[in-house]
Every structure is written in C-alpha cells, then in structure tokens.
Amino acid sequence: MPHLSVEDLNLLFADARTYNGWASDPVPDATLRELYDLVKLAPTSANSCPARFVFLRTPEAKARLKPHLSPGNVDKAMAAPVVVIVAQDLAFYEQMPQLFPSRPLRDVFANDAALAADTARRNTVLQGAYLILAARALGLDVGPMSGFDPAGVDREFFGERPLRAEFLVNLGRGDPASLWPRNPRLAFEQACELV
Ligand SMILES: Cc1cc2nc3c(=O)[nH]c(=O)nc-3n(C[C@H](O)[C@H](O)[C@H](O)COP(=O)(O)O)c2cc1C
Questions:
Q1: Distance CA 5, CA 11 (A)
Q2: What CA–CA distances, in Å, run from 30 to 33, 35, 61, 144?
Q3: What is the 178 CA–ligand 1 centroid distance (Å)?
Q4: What's the farthest any 2 CA atoms get from each other in the chain?
C-alpha cells in the first residue's frame, strides 16, 4: 500500500498545530489557487461541493471582518496573512447539473429543504476540514476559528446571497512562540469501538 513518509505524516498531524500568531510573509494568490485545486477533489455527498471560500488577504478586507470577531480572535486574525471564510452555499443544488451530470439531482435537493440544509452543512464542514489538511500539506500553518458573529459576517460579505459563514481559518506561516500547550486527545478505547 502506498504510504506517506513519517515526515509527511508529521507535517499533517503530529507537528501540525493551531497557531495564534503569525509571521508577516504573504501567501501568494497562486498558492490559494493551488490550495483550492486540492480541496475541490476531496469527497462530498453526491459531489455536492457546497462550500464557498472567501480569502481575505488585504488589510481592507480583514478590516471588514474585524467588528464581527470575538475579542480573543481579533489580534490573531488581523495578524494572519489570510483569513478564509468557509461558507455554505444554501443554493448549492443549482450547480448539481454540472457536478453530477449523470443524474437529475437538482430537484431532489431543491424540493427537500431539510435534506438540502443537512447536505450543505455536513459537506461544508467536511470541505473546511479538507482545507485545513490541504493547507498543511502545502506547508502552510492554520488557525481555525468559530468565535465570530456569523450573521454579521453574512451581512457584510454576502448581503442577499444565500451564503452562510460556517467557520474561519487563519492561514500563513505561524509564529511558534504563539503556540499554546498541546492538549491531550482521547485514547482509542475512549473514542473508538471495534465491532
Ligand atoms: C472549528 C474550530 C473552531 C475553533 N475556534 C477557535 C476560536 O474561535 N478561537 C481560538 O483561539 N481557537 C479556536 N479553535 C482552535 C482549537 O482550540 C484548536 O484547534 C484545538 O485546541 C487543537 O489545538 P492544536 O491543533 O494546537 O492541538 C478552533 C478550532 C476549530 C477546528
């Protein structure tokens, strides 16, 4: 079986941390495109791809975010070279003819609001997680954040569009001095069952 090297696994997991402070090195737009080109390939249900990503990488763009952040997240987000808004597209099903051309799935979601909402949320969160791992695979550091006012972010960035901010991700080169101690994780026996 193909297997990543120990170094690559460490990059993705053991050495990957949540950064609270950032070096000022910019992240080129070309890297953000490379990042999306990885994220888009990871699986979503019915290939629905409901996540939308807004890359805030100018002081002006981040200033629009600032009033909607929890106080503890302001400094880290303002210092990060890029803040990504990971949002759900509640009308994701309009793209189903492109995304799953072999089956008429648009109306399946359009006619079932609960199914559409469930699908949008579950798969947006998955795609946000893929973004975290893809960023780390490209050598970027990451700091996810859910401490913000989603309604405020939606108003500021999406207006009347059917998009809902789910969480935020700071991206760049993390400052090792900003790391908090690593918290313990659950043991296999606590979190898993072999059935
Ligand atoms: C969805 C999500 C939301 C988070 N929200 C915040 C946040 O608002 N502020 C913050 O400082 N850290 C936030 N964190 C960071 C977590 O506390 C951190 O990733 C976790 O404790 C693991 O830390 P480690 O990667 O350094 O081991 C969030 C993480 C995730 C995945």
A1: 10
A2: 5, 9, 18, 21
A3: 13
A4: 53
150 lines ligand 1 (CB under 6 A): no
pLDDT digits (tens), the chain, 195 positions: 779 999 999 999 999 999 999 999 999 999 999 999 999 999 999 999 999 999 999 999 999 999 999 999 999 999 999 999 999 999 999 999 999 999 999 999 999 999 999 999 999 999 999 999 999 999 999 999 999 999 999 999 999 999 999 999 999 999 999 999 999 999 999 999 999
- Distance from the alpha carbon of residue 50 to the mean position of ligand 1, in angstroms: 23
Atom of ligand 1 nearest to the CA of 70: 8
- How far apart CA 51 and CA 86 sit, in angstroms, is 7
- Residues 148 and 71: their CA atoms lie apart, in Å, by 9
Angle (nearest 5°) at CA 31 between 127 and 147: 45
